[in-house]
Amino acid sequence: MRAGFGARLAEAVRRRGPLCVGIDPHPSLLHAWELGESPQALERFAMTVVEALAGRVALLKPQSAFFEAYGSAGIAVLEKVITESRQAGALVLLDVKRGDIGSTMAAYAMAYLDEHAPLAADAITVSPYLGYGSLAPAIGLAEQNGRGVFVLARTSNPEGVGLQQSVHGSGDAVGQHIVDCAAESNLDKEPMGHVGVVAGATIPAGELDFSALNGPILAPGLGAQGATVRDLKALFGRALPNVLPTTSRDVLRQGPAVQSLQDAHARIAEDINRQLGI
């Protein structure tokens, strides 16, 4: 039986470091690589990143939307990315941000977290804004299958501030309420639970308390969006050992040469390890 996601992630980070790299085949990057926009270009871009990094990073994060844009051909590429990344030893966090209710949420969970699903990933991102309880099918199936979920708690986009900083019925901000709900899902799990949160590395320090979370924290925003490694220390405090700093463009724009992608990853990873004392 597969070990829990928290244990598998902790081991991967111990071996390969905490940096998570996104696979975001944005049209601007495809053109920067002189590939154009087609399913064939998508596959070349994505599989070049897999070739360069899947044997080096703990976690790769393909952004599903950029693959979905090409229809069935794009989904076929995404399946290949997931399969070959995992074969090379990387865990795959599929960035799908799904959130729904009842049988629909259960169907999303089956699509990405079931053992026999073609798109089964090690973890997925989910949105709790139909209520944290609506995520129960995904949280339960993930735990059953040794997989994980990362719940959007406090994102760095300006449109999210009004909702995520509003006051929940509990009296806490909505973002803090989500972190606290995730903490309840992770109670007594060792070395940490399978429910992570997403908290942008550019949000103000001290806004959220992660001390009881006992789960991983995906922290997008490093590099191109303005966050620095020093910001991570101030923002996450004692929870820093569970933080997964995330970058995409700062690595991807160095392609298409495999060595250039590897060099960019190595520079960022070394900076993170040095400043965090890893």
UniProtKB/TrEMBL annotation:
Give the GO molecular function terms: orotidine-5'-phosphate decarboxylase activity
User: What CDD domains has UniProt attached to this entry?
Assistant: OMP_decarboxylase_like (cd04725)
List, alphabetically, the HAMAP family matched: OMPdecase_type2
Indicate what this protein is called per its UniProt record: Orotidine 5'-phosphate decarboxylase
The alphabetical list of record keywords is: Decarboxylase, Lyase, Pyrimidine biosynthesis
Write down the Gene3D superfamilies for this protein, in alphabetical order.
Aldolase class I
Organism of derivation: Saccharopolyspora rhizosphaerae
- What PROSITE patterns does the database record attribute to this sequence? OMPDECASE
Q: Which reaction does it catalyse?
A: orotidine 5'-phosphate + H(+) = UMP + CO2
